[in-house]
Every structure is written in structure tokens, then in C-alpha cells.
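User: I'm putting together a small comparison set for a docking exercise, and I want a reference complex before I start. The sequence is below, and the ligand is nicotinamide-adenine-dinucleotide. Could you produce the 3D structure with the ligand included, as C-alpha cells?
Assistant: Of course. I'll restate your input first, then give the C-alpha cells for the complex.
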Amino acid sequence: MAAELISGTQIRQTILKELGKDVEAMRQKYGKVPGLVTILVGDNPASVSYVTLKVRTALELGFHEIQDSQPADISEEALLALIARYNADPDIHGILVQLPLPPHIDATKVLYAIDPDKDVDGFHPLNLGRLLIGGDAVRFLPCTPAGIQELLVRSNTPLEGAEVVVVGRSNIVGKPLAVMLGQKGPGANATVTLAHTRTRNLADHCRRADVLVVAAGVPGLVKTDWIKPGATVIDVGVNRIGFNPETGKAILSGDVDFERAKEVAGKITPVPGGVGPMTIAMLMKNTVRSAWSYLEQR
Ligand code: NAD
């Protein structure tokens, strides 16, 4: 039986529509809109394309959007000064520095310089600490894990008491997601296993999962017989496995063999069109949240 498709593309549209209404309500109430600055250093083609998408989405939602492009040889000091300026700007509610940064700049130092109240990527240690505490302490959820949680909730995937296995323990995907799904509260309350390169018997762990999230960056890592029949499979991996000369675009594959896995899984995300579209939507959601909280506190 073919699995139900969890379409990130569709769910993203619903979320952006909700956010559009929220922005309009803000404009009516305060005469203000959310302000987002995207700082791009250099011209790495992948970064340019991510930033372009972010800027386009922000403009579609009616944000005050600044795309601040800086040369690849900008000094760390100058970049920190730029961030300090946006930290102090009352019309900017979200600051995003596109990674990777050139090697002469300490990315950690730069990310930690962002005002945690404007850290819409959710990478600042203060926001990660708040995430760990959970409940009302949470301010910004990192965008990709937040997108995955939305996909699970909006596809009515039961999480309460569910066995969730997350493969991959990066700071931007696996680790925060494992914490989020194990928290007390709606859209969570799961029993989470965090698997990684040192995990013994990875296949056995995966076979126990009611919800299997794979964020390893290894094409075809999860075999069909690792999936419990009826499980929900979220494939976070984005792997460039070739190049299509006709479209001029990279051929992408996830960490799961989608065509075969969909015969076993109950629900599954495609690559592309699954987790990918959600990440930018969550960035927009964080910026709207940040703007509301700033305007309501004034
Ligand atoms: P990462 O390289 O920082 O981390 C990968 C993790 O997977 C590591 O913790 C590692 O221990 C684990 N891992 C790797 N190989 C493994 C194996 N054979 N068995 C078990 N565990 C293994 O990667 P990341 O930044 O978390 O990204 C993971 C994947 O998700 C990549 O393909 C990336 O492109 C994709 N990604 C997609 C989005 C999106 O918006 N769709 C966002 C972030 C990352």
C-alpha cells in the first residue's frame, strides 16, 4: 500500500497564508510590519540562492526586508559592527547571517553577537538553553526542527507516547529536534532515541520507530526493511547525487529510498518538497513572533 504523502510544499502554503493574516493584523494594530535583515557575505552560489528565496518570501508576506550583501573580504570587526547596528534598530525584529562565512571570520562569534531577541534562526546558546528548558521559556525554535514538528502535527501523526527515532545529532537538526519531541506538551510527549554514527545496530533502532526522522546526509542510508510498516518517515537529507543537463539543476535525493519506502511507511515526506520548504516558513514565523513580542512590550 502506498503511504500518505506529507507535502511540505502544501503545508508551507497554509502556514504562509496564516502568517500573511498575522502581518496584516499587526499593520492594523500598530502600523508596523515585521522587519528582517538577511546578511550575505560573499557570493557562494548556494548561499545566494537560499538568501534569494528567504528575501522573496519575506517580501511576499509584506515584511520590511533588508538584504545586506557584504564583500567576501569584510573583516570580522566590520561584520560585528554591522550586527550591532541591526541589534539596535527598532524596525528590525530578526537578523539572519547566512552560513557558511569565509574562513577568516569566526562564525560562532558572529552568531553569538546577534541579540538573542532577534535570533530568528534560533542558534544562539541562550535560545538553545531556553529550548532545553521548554514550555514558556522557549523563544525561537531552530527553523528546520520546528518545520519537522509542524509537518508531524499538521499531518496528524500521533506523538504522545510514540517511539521516535532521530538519526543524526547535529546542532541545527537532530539534537534540537530530539529535545523538542521529548518535551512535555502538545506536539511532543514522545519517547525519543537519538542515533548517530556511533550507534550500534542502527537498523534495529529504526525498526522500532513509530516516527523515523533521518537527518544524516547519506543518500539511501535507511533501507526499506528498517522501516516499521505504517511508520511515519521524515526524510531531512538533501543530497546532490547528480546533475540534470536539461534542467541545469542538481538531482536531489534524501537519506531514504523514497520509491521503495513509500510502499512500507504509513506517511512519508518526499525530497524535494518535504522538509525543505518548511525551513523558510519557520524563519518567517519566528520573525513575526519576534515582531509581536517587541511591539507588545513597548
Ligand atoms: P551534519 O553533517 O551536521 O550531521 C549529520 C549527522 O548524521 C551527524 O550527527 C552524524 O552523526 C549522523 N550520521 C551521519 N552518517 C551517519 C550514519 N551512517 N549512521 C548514523 N548516523 C549518521 O548534517 P546536518 O546539517 O544535520 O544535515 C543533515 C542532512 O539534512 C543533510 O543532508 C542536509 O543537507 C539536510 N538538511 C536539510 C535541511 C532542510 O531544510 N531540508 C536543513 C538542514 C539540513
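The first strand starts at residue 4 and ends at 5. Residues 144, 167-170, 172-174, 195-197, 199, 202, 215-218, 221, 236-239, 275-276, 279 surround nicotinamide-adenine-dinucleotide (CB under 6 Å).
User: Thanks, that's exactly what I needed.
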